[in-house]
Amino acid sequence: MEYSSVAGIEKKISRLVQGCIMLTCQKQEEGFALLDAARAAGITAYDTGHIYGGGDCDRMLGLWMEARGNRDEAVIIGKGAHLNQDRNRVTPYDIASDMADSLVRLRSDYIDLYLLHRDDPSVPVGPIVDTLNEHHAAGRIHAFGGSNWTPERIAEANEYAHKHNLVPFAVSSPNFSLAEQFEEPWTDCLSISGPSQASDRQAYAAMDMPLFTWSSVARGFFSGKITSANAEEVRDQFDGSMPKSYYHEDNFKRLDRAWALAEEKDLSVPQIALAYVLSYPLNIHALVGSANADEVASNEQALATRLSDAEMAWLDLRSEER
User: Fold this and answer.
1) What domains does the chain contain, in order, with CATH numbers?
2) Is residue 86 pLDDT above 90, yes or no?
3) What is the pLDDT of residue 230?
4) What gap in Å lies between CA 53 and CA 119, rounded to an integer?
């Protein structure tokens, strides 16, 4: 396992982050087995969110950490202030309310890294930064950042923080994968994938900001179940947001190349797709949705695979040679 660090968090943070959205208290034994496998592989970071599973994701992590006595080593990445069908919720009240719920569910008095699940650009950054700093000063969160925030808004927030001698945003959590996102899978989801988002990647490189990127295999587009030939036949096997976002001519070309490179390297398509993310020259921690011990091991192998610059450019259609 490879590890990195984030300002404000003293624990080592694995570059593979176990996504926990699939956890449910109704399948506690299976959930514990998955988390145990991730831990055994050296994964220390676990991604959850107030909105996930009506709170079950938080609850399962809390039960597991209590049972294993490993709160001091686990890096919990929590999220709050997600919009609902009635309104945006990036407000001091909603941030505090969601955080309070998650702390109880997690059976903890702090969250290592707290992300605002969405942004609301109509809300000035000042009150948001002030609110997060209040929770930071109280010890409820050790670092914070934005999920689906633009680099411009994060830079604006951090400029405010520096001017007022406050703690700045430490990380960003956008989508990033080999596939370009042509439509939002859900409301207000931001991606830094593909040629259209090159300027955002350059901005994060200039900031040297840690990124916790989600949908590393494009919601199953690179699952190994899809080819450019059978895409329509298997469409209904996936959540409808995936084809909407990723079924595009350029992405099928990337998929064909991922299949070819996987065969050459004796790897799987999802391993090639994840290796692309982890080989990219940014400070990336990849959120992965391993469902069992075998998938945890497969993702470990992807982390150990380094793609060359030529292979990266070829996969992303930036070159015809590799």
Assistant:
1) 3-218+282-311 (3.20.20.100)
2) no
3) 96
4) 21
